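Reader question, answered in our methods column.
A reader sent in the components of a multi-part assembly and asked whether the whole thing could be modeled at once rather than chain by chain. We filled in our standard form and ran it. Here is what they sent:
COMPLEX SIZE: two components
ENTRIES:
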Amino acid sequence: MAEPRYITGKKPHAREKRMIFRNVDRAGWNPSIEKYIKDGGYKTLKKSLKLKPGEVTDEVKASGLRGRGGAGFPTGVKWGFIPPNNTKPIYLICNADESEPGTFKDRYIIHQDPHQLIEGILISSYAVGAKIAYIYIREEFPEGAIILENAIEEARKAGLLGKGIAGTGFECEIYVHRGAGAYICGEETGLIESLEGKRPYPRIKPPYFPAALGLYMCPTIVNNVESLCHVKHVMEMGGKQYGQLGTPRNTGTRILCVSGDVQKPGYFEIEVGKLTMGELIEDLCGGMKKGRKLKAVIPGGSSAKVLRAGETYTIRDGDQEKNIGLNDIPMDFDTLAACGSMAGSGGVIVMDDSRDMAWVLNNINTFYAHESCGQCTPCREGSLWMKKITDRMLAGGGVPSDVETLVSVGDNIAGRTICAFGEACSWPTQSFVGKFPEEFKKHTKRRNVGKALNPEAKVASASLMDKD
Amino acid sequence: MIEACKQAAAEVPHYCYHPKLTSPGNCRMCLVEMGMPPRPAPGEQPDLDEDGRAKINWMPRPVIACANTVAEGMGIRTQSLLAKECRQGVMEFLLINHPLDCPICDQAGECTLQEYSVEHGNGESRFLEGKVKKPKNVEIGPRIRLDDERCVLCSRCVRFSKEVVDDDVLGFVDRGSHSVLTVHPDRKLKNNYSLNTVDICPVGALTSNDFRFKMRVWFMRETKSVCNGCARGCNILIGSRENKIYRQTPRENNKVNSAWMCDSGRMEYHKLEHPGRLTDPMIKRGRKHHTVDWTDAVCRAARDLTKFKGEQFAIIASGRMTNEELYLTRTLSESLEAGIVDIVTRIGTGDDYLAHSDKNPNVNGVRKILRLRSPGSKLKTIRAKVAKGEIKALLVLGENLLT
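And here is the structure of the entire assembly that came back:
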């Protein structure tokens, strides 16, 4: 393995708790199997193989580990959905299609610590009874795919892959499959279709729940890269012990990827819920840029609903309710959900007072209009419509009805589509327009008439303006 | 669920669902509210509403009626506010990029977009943007044209080609609102069942070259019939106006043709337009045929036929005749004691689906009514006897032996 092509020896912040990212940026580290084994790697696999598969699942259930891909679904529970009387082959898929804007955690695991992922995959495959595991890696990670292929070969030579892994009867094969550049392949059933060689049209659920009817209509477990790495740590320290990390129901650590208008953007591994939004921005990221004020935060990847500075949220603290501000929100799954957003994929996007929210929304809308797979009507037509409205607003052709139209288009998509992309593309619009109405109204003022770049929009906006 | 609702007279609108194909659930038109009564704890009675029915826990999200199945006790709301809003939303989405070219669209009058617009659409459009431009008037096969701007991407045609005829040439390319239906590069939709895609297309995206722009559908009268292109007997509807046929489309009969028919069967009606077809009774005087009225023709035929008896006389009937015609033929042959009766056989190529290798529609009727054990086997004998002069008169019904 060649020497790493990144800067090593960067110290993590004192408030971080590095488990998954222990080897990321580590001085003297490289992604070879020698380094990994020397550091105690694959011991957890050997330890786990001495247990029964069900016992491994029980440990993961006991740990309370929740999926790190976006939905935050308990991993052990997901594994338990495989029909008990199943006779078909079982597949495990590692979802390395990290494509949610604002998220950049899995790529570092793949690039700098691929063996951790392979160990996690092998333990998980053993637990669910999969003999074949796929790593579905997005097209935009060409180097990551090569690194994984190399790591898989290293593991095979070390007797940790294929038949009779680590001298036991367990056999498992891992294949790397590269995507072709589509966001929708991160949706698990879209991913499965793509892996089968088809267009990644997400499947309808019911009946196609992957745990029963997944890849090639066989039971399939799809887990995120980070989740699978956590499995390794759950088994290393024991489920109960792992459950002590973080906060109850929001256990373990997770990687937050902070981008936007902060002094020091980057990735930070923290204990879930042990850090507030304010601490994340002020301490870990060095605060906002000079002279700027916090305006809004998207806490879990671009599809999460935006949180506005100055808002108050009512959350439950034990039996009591209390009001907190944006800076006081602990970074966990449940509180962010209670605040009307989500922890999602951990991509925290921070915006300061220099940002025009219509521009921000237009940027997000452009992404989703481009990435909608086009299978079902509301998302196919609605995502582009919302983009066209914000396009026109920014071009100076906004009309007063636009604000209302934007929200209702969003309402007509969310909850009515085949997959969660419907929510992903409508939540930004619903929340941005709902929380910053004045910023959008600003773009629909009378003075904008005639400024439209798009001639059709110009005519349309002029005729509507005359009405009121 | 969609079929159960239909049985309960609560029609659920839909585009992508077709009873003979798999349910992809992509149009989202059939969203309804669904719920189940909570399972009561042992010994407890279920909560009842005012009507004495078990109270239902409604799911917060609407579900698609096409891909869900009903269960005992399940509640479905097809007319609730949410269900109506969903339909209205989907209708609006389907129409924003639709060209709205109904006046010149051949589907007008039998278009589900039009139908559902009346029931579930909005009165006016909120769409101020430019529409997405897509390919128009694309020849995707020898008999079919595609207008991608009208397509609602329901995938019925794709599924039909794949699931029913195993000719997977259609598919979608590009994504999002720019998705288009297209035919596989270097291939065409040219299988003998291709025109079924036109029938199941709920909008004017796929139109038949044979029928388009010939007749507005609301002027046509539809008559139930059976195709006479081969021995399968596909049930059909004949669309006609003022005694002129404009098209033949399949009529569902699950024991014969499901909901489909072959393209060659659809074109059968063109035989009626053949210039050599006998349309009036005629009598040959000298070297020429002269049109006469029916009474003259029948009298003349009767008079001449009685001149011959038994072995001097043979009948060649047709496998295209109806049972009633065959019965009359038999009565005639019995009263005239015709020496030989036979029919002309037509053996062509069939396939393993609907097209039969026997291209006569009613050879079975011939076997039963004319009591022919192997139809067509006596034609050679007739020919030889005519040549020898043993047969002096030949009555030919429904066939043209000269061509």
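What stands out: The first helix of chain A runs from residue 33 to 38. The interface with chain B takes residues 182, 184, 199, 201, 204, 206-207, 369-378, 380-385, 388-389, 392, 399, 401, 405, 411-413, 415-418, 454, 456-457, 460-461, 464 of chain A (CB under 8 Å).
Send us your own complexes using the same form.
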